Protein: DNA 3'-5' helicase
Organism: Pseudaminobacter salicylatoxidans
Amino acid sequence: MPRKARAAGRIRPISTVVGKVRPVKMGTKRQHCWRFPAESLHSVEMSDFPDDIPFFDEPGAPAPRPSGAPAPSGIAARAMAARNASAPDYLKGLNAEQRQAVETTEGPVLVLAGAGTGKTRVLTTRIAHILSLGRAYPSQILAVTFTNKAAREMKQRIGLLVGEAIEGMPWLGTFHSIGVKMLRRHAELAGLRSDFTILDTDDVIRLIKQLIQAEGLDDKRWPPRQFAMMIDTWKNKGLGPADIPEGDARAFANGKGRELYKAYQDRLQTLNACDFGDLLCHPIRIFRAHPDVLKEYHRRFKYILVDEYQDTNTAQYMWLRLLAQETGGSAQKNICCVGDDDQSIYGWRGAEVDNILRFEKDFPGATVIRLERNYRSTAHILGAASHLIAHNEGRLGKTLFTDIADPDDAKVNVHAAWDSEEEARAVGEEIEQLQRKGHALNDMAILVRASFQMREFEDRFVTLGLNYRVVGGPRFYERQEIRDAMAYFRVVAQPADDLAFERIVNVPKRGLGEAAVRQIHDTARALRIPMLEAAAKLAESDELKPKPRAALRAVAANFERWQKALDNTSHTELAEIILEESGYTDMWKNDRSAEAPGRLENLKELIRSMEDYESLRSFLEHVALVMDSEQNEELDAVTIMTLHSAKGLEFETVFLPGWEEGLFPHQRSLDEGGRSGLEEERRLAYVGLTRAKKNLHIWFVSNRRIHGLWQSTIPSRFLDELPEAHVEVAEGGDSYGGYGGGGYGGRQNPYGASRFDSIGSDQRSFSNTYATPGWQRAQQNRNEATDRNWGSRSGHHVERIGYGETDSGYGAGRGSVKSRTIEGELVAKSVADSPSPFKVGDRVFHQKFGNGNVAAIEGNKLTIDFDKAGQKRVIDSFVTAV
DNA sequence: GGCTCATATCGCGGA
DNA sequence: GATATGAGCC
């Protein structure tokens, strides 16, 4: 099964394994979606705001009091009741600090919530508290999070606390989703129409590239990507083209940075589009330029809550300040920010830890509440984490503690391995052992510093037949076929979306190449009309040669028809029609490559996921805003993800591989951020440590391949910052070679023992590998079996790899210790003596070469006459019977 | 003029 | 390891 998955989803093979393909299905609840087109198409006036929708309308739910009306006595009575011994159920079980954070509803509040101290619980209970006291309607609470996942979880948990009535919390969401909602209401004030599209980074880069070329600049010398990053940085600070520092402006495009930025914004406006940064920057500008608009929001939001406040960037901060500022010296705004300065790990993305450190200055009279009682981890883990983070300066200072102390608790384990492959192997073994003891795979996670580390674990787990899920890999919506389909939908929903149009005019191939597209483009620019319109015009003129003209006419006619169908066809049906009639599905059906069926599957899944939305537009909006795709929670699988995406999660057992200088702390952070960069890395380590509830394993290796180059590495300085008392250095024992059991004491010699010395121990561990159940499973599972040629190991580990690795499949491309595919021929000696399961004449399929007939068999090496690729010699485990 | 294949170069973080 | 460019072919 995993092998099939790999074949199907070549883009990021494994993600398919655990149902990455089902992105929008979680829980049974329909995703809450606001309907933007109908109610806000032309609404500029605040009076168009829908009145507060009654919220507790279920029978038996407490009735809200009318907004603005004096508090009826019932509320006071209930509030009193809440303080009584018979406190509401939802307050029970909170500790004193948590309860204070929940009950201090008025005035500015900063909750410093350490890892595992019940932060989400406080936030959700606080909202439930406000609601049940009748202090505000759900629609009067603004609650912002950073991820959709956090928002979803909050909705769900509030729902559990107050009954099922949370559908009515329209202003609970991510910064971006709330920003988009505001912007749709006031789009005209930003020079947009309310049906604007949101461009993702890919679109942005293509657009910038066009602009750079239009300026007559060399896009080699001035990479669009880099400029996109600069714009991002500026927008994180809330800077428009006029506001950027002169130095920044001069640094790009021969000093034309500012002009280019301006041109970019202008182009977005004509495209009726905005990028991610604009979702916050436009509202900020609107609030400043139109105090009446801002005032309306002030009236509306009685309570503001912010999650992960330490991650806010300057733009988000400005946005919040504007919304939370005191109006005319009247009552203090009720803003509650929750965060942990020790978990600020997004500095490189523009986050300002300063925001949280400055809170008391920004909001005078603020109540600061510290949550330090940890409910998650053992004393050993907490001790290790606290000791590590204490090496940072400039913290607000918190010390986590726990009452739970079990003498049986395991200390934090530090392991050494020879190289990353052995690391993966050993982690795999450990996981299997835990599994045998009855631990669920769902309770285990591998948290890596950089995503390239994931691959080795994936490879290993595939071999072992262990289920795993990758979080934060390339996402469903980033796949080529999905983006193509989405581009079709976008053009139908928003005919001015030139970027989408350009993407698909010639997909599938219609004979409209570069020249034709350029002509459409030029016509569009000259007449100041969208490209789709220009295409229709060109199709009726004699400007083009007959062939492209006919093709273009067909395209234009198609889109016209689909647009007409938009109103009277269900959007899922229309989506199917579009993909069918455009020839897009046929394109993949006729594609004989191995990934084509997977892509068709994905397209089907795309349509299926659209069912959860009420309209094509709301679906498009959802897709533009999802950053995290859901996972199939039902499957028992080990989680592999980056430390960044692990924040907020917890696992019984956590593996932290790759604790080596240069990787962790990451060289880049050190180079760019100096001391503060190092501190951010340390916080990242802290985040990693505090994800673990019971077991924590840290790994470092002495050799790692980075950018195709084997490099000797030295253990991370963070290892030395762990307290002896809570740490145990795992003895190498029978396996894991590397430092020969010396643990990280081996760091005295940065190059470790001679690599030749450890070959022996390494091979010992190799033979152990055969004994693992996973290996045996892999043996049974013939297709999984990787060839295991260790023969050429010595002396190879510092050379450059990277020749002939045309196949990303098994065994290939994994460094000198593995076999390599050269010109399609597998140069490997077999270790398996078992007879080949194939016989001469068998019809077989190979991932790369397609179908063919077995011509000869020699051990486990087959000679196959492929239909297309000709005669090749391959290892039998690389082909499947047809 | 458009399409397909093969080679050279860059770069990698993340919602 | 993906992307951009160029050669060769239809």
Observations:
- The first helix of chain A runs from residue 2 to 8.
- Chain A has 33 helices and 23 strands.
- The two ends of chain A are 15 Å apart (CA to CA).
